[in-house]
Specification:
Among the domains are: 1-50, Ribosomal protein S4/S9, N-terminal domain (Ribosomal Protein S4 Delta 41, Chain A, domain 1, Orthogonal Bundle), CATH 1.10.1050.10; 104-181, Structural Genomics Hypothetical 15.5 Kd Protein In mrcA-pckA Intergenic Region, Chain A, CATH 3.10.290.10. It is built from eight helices and five strands, in the order H-H-H-H-H-H-H-E-E-E-E-E-H. By secondary structure, it is α+β, with helices and mostly antiparallel strands. It has a five-stranded antiparallel beta sheet with strand order 2-1-3-5-4, with helices on one face. A hairpin with a 2-residue loop joins strand 1 and strand 2.
Length: 203
């Protein structure tokens, strides 16, 4: 299955949480989830069905996948890599998975406030408007390391509206941002229940 090109707010309504896929609109009162706080579809406004354990795991996996704009095969590869790293470095598998997602080039641009959404950040990278360590880079899924710096070449593309505070592990100034250190669990979205994703893929 290819990239999803349908209504983005429909995805937030399906997961029941705001995925912030529409930039500043996602932080306003106009967001689809506030106007229609029920799942999309003909029977969306009826009583919500009780989910099984598998259903909870699936919905959590879909929520995180859609938040970061990652496809299924990519997401499973990230899980397998987090599993490998957790065994090699004797660390928490869930934290390794979240770090792999947080340190994506497009996500760092978004968190640094240089792009209004992750989708916009991905487009900036693909179109060649982003420098990674002062070199043109066009792969939005690239994993950044501690000390890496990213910069938007065209200042007019950088978002001027700060929708949320920049996390402490990212240093942002003007059109440039640097990964100061690796993020810890408390600095990553509290709404993510990574244990459910681990359980889903461990079946």
């Amino acid at each position: 299955m290819g990239r999803y090109t349908g209504p983005k707010e429909r995805l937030s309504r399906r997961e029941g949480v705001e995925l912030h896929l529409k930039g500043s609109r996602s932080f306003s009162e106009k967001t689809g989830l506030k106007r229609k706080p029920f799942v999309p579809g003909q029977h969306g406004s009826k009583r919500k069905a009780r989910l099984s354990n598998y259903g909870l795991q699936l919905r959590e996996k879909q929520k995180v996948k859609r938040t970061y704009g990652v496809r299924e095969r990519q997401f499973k590869s990230l899980y397998l890599e987090s599993d490998r790293r957790s065994k090699v470095y004797d660390t928490d598998k869930g934290l390794e998975l979240l770090r792999l997602l947080e340190l994506r080039l497009d996500n760092v641009l978004y968190l640094a406030g240089l792009a209004p959404s992750r989708a916009a950040a991905r487009q900036y990278v693909v179109h060649g408007h982003v420098l990674l360590n002062d070199k043109k880079f066009t792969i939005p899924s690239a994993e950044l390391k501690e000390g890496d710096s990213v910069e938007i070449k065209m200042a007019k593309l950088a978002s001027t509206e700060k929708l949320f505070p920049v996390p402490e592990w990212v240093e942002s100034k003007g059109t440039k941002a640097t990964v100061a250190r690796l993020p810890i669990r408390e600095e990553i979205d509290e709404g993510i229940r990574e244990n459910l994703i681990i359980e889903y893929y461990s079946r």
